[in-house]
Amino acid sequence: MRDTGHLPLFGVGPACVASMACALAVSLALWKADVLASGHVPGLAPALVALGAALAVGGAAIWVQAVLVADIDRAVKQGELVTNGIYAWVRNPIYTAIAMMLSGAGLLTGNAWFLLLPPVFWLDVTVWVRASEEKWLSARFGEAYADYCARVNRCIPCPPRTPRIPRTPRTPRQRS
Question: What's this model's pTM, rounded to 2 decimal places?
C-alpha cells in the first residue's frame, strides 16, 4: 500500500463485504435448494421475518449515519480519527451496517438457520479489521486510538463507555 498519510478510502472493505455477501449467497442457494428446510419453524417464521426487517432497516440507518452524516470520506482524506456521532457507538459502523442488512436479508426467509449469519459476519469483520485497519490506526493515532478502542466496541453498537482516566502512580510514603 502506498503511504498517502491516510487510510485508503476502501481499505479491506470490498474484500470483507464480498466475503459476507458470498456467505449470504451460499446460504440463500442452500435455502432455495431445500437443504436448510429443517430451519423452517412455522411458529417462529413471523418473528424471524420481523427481526430481519428490523436488522435491514437498522443497518441502513447506521450506514446513513456513518457515511453521509459523519462525512467519513472527507475525514479519511484529511487523516482524521472520527470518534463522534455513530462512531462513538461503534468503531466500524459501515461494516456493522452491511452485516446487519445482509443478516436481515437472510432472516427475511423466515428460516432459523439464518440466525447463524450474524456471528459469522462478526467474525469476518473482526478478522479483516484486526489484521489491517486497527494496526494502521494504532500506528497512526497511538494513545488516542487506544483510548477510543477502550470506550467503543468494534462491531456491536452500544453507548460508549466512560473514557479511561489515567492513574497517577503513588509514591511510597517516607517515614520520618
Answer: 0.83
